[in-house]
Each structure stands twice: as C-alpha cells, then as structure tokens.
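Q: Could you fold this chain for me?
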Amino acid sequence: MSLSRGIVAAVVLATGLHADEPEPQPLPSFKACMNEEIARYERALRRVREMPGVQDFEIGDTGGTEYCGSVGIVRCDRRADRLPCQHGFAREQDAMKARIVASLPKPETVAGKAGQWSDTLYPLALALATGTSAGPDCGGDTEVMAAWCDAREANRRLGNAVFAWQLARFLDATPSGIDAGWASRPPPTRPRARPDKD
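A: Sure. Below is the predicted structure, expressed as structure tokens.
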C-alpha cells in the first residue's frame, strides 16, 4: 500500500467509516484543513525565530498537506457523485497550488539569505513546484482509481508548492499565506473544559 493510500485508509478508519457505523463523523472541508495546516506552520516558524542563534530548516513538512488531501478524497467518496467530486477536488488543489506558486519569489531574490544550503535547495524546491509531469499520471487506471489518482496527484503537486513556500517563508522571502491571499485565518480553538473534581 502506498503512503497516500495508507493515509486515506487511516482517515477512513479514524472517522468511523465502517460497515456497522452508518453515520461517520463529519470531516472538515479541504480549505478549513489547509488553513489549520498553514497556521500550524506559522506557529512552528514563530517558535524557530524565537530561538537563539542560526536554526536549520527542520520544520519543512508536507505531511499535513497530504492529510488534508486524504480528507478531501474521503469527503468525495461519501457523496453520490464521488467521481466528479474527485476530479473537481483535483482542480481545487491545482488552483491553490497556482496561487501559492504565484506568491513565490524568484531564486535570485532569495540568494544569500541563509548561505549555500538555501541557495542550492530553494531553486530545486521552486523547480518542483512549477514543473509539469512528463506524461499522464493516471493512465490505465479504472474509472474509480483514475478519479482517486487525479486527486492524489494534484495533492502531490500542491505539496511541492507548499514545501517551496515553507522554505521561502523560513528565509523571510515571501508573505504568509493569509497576507498572500491564498489562506485564511482559522477560527480560534476553544479551550477544553477541565474535568470536574470530586
């Protein structure tokens, strides 16, 4: 089982999609999920910037983006029009990817920000974010698997763009997703009630 399919399966199990549980728990929208993920990265970045000395780029991670993609796939699978939904979800992810890429700086404007490692890594990350596939990614699949594949491949492309943005953001070379207009501030999390003490 691939990592993407494994995450999809984990989301299904975690949300109660079983034969004996006809009422699965509601899932967040893809947009809400990504807003939370971008906010999580901003919190991690703020903590890094508060640390003394020069910090390595260890907070770059697209696992959250992949999780949000899996949530979107499961949401579509719960609908009667699940195949058109999956293809529409792929377009939604590609649209977000395009907006992120449009906000990314050119490599020459990032040069010298953090030394040789960033001068080497950022152009590679940007090339992945802006590259195109050499051929059909979902050719030969059944109609159902092709729909899943379409959504998963769009998520992979989005993940490349998110990683490039994370790196540019780490280098203080691009605005936050909120300031750039492709993300929104998530609602505040309500504090958990304290258990009653006897």
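A (continued): Residues 3-180 form one domain.
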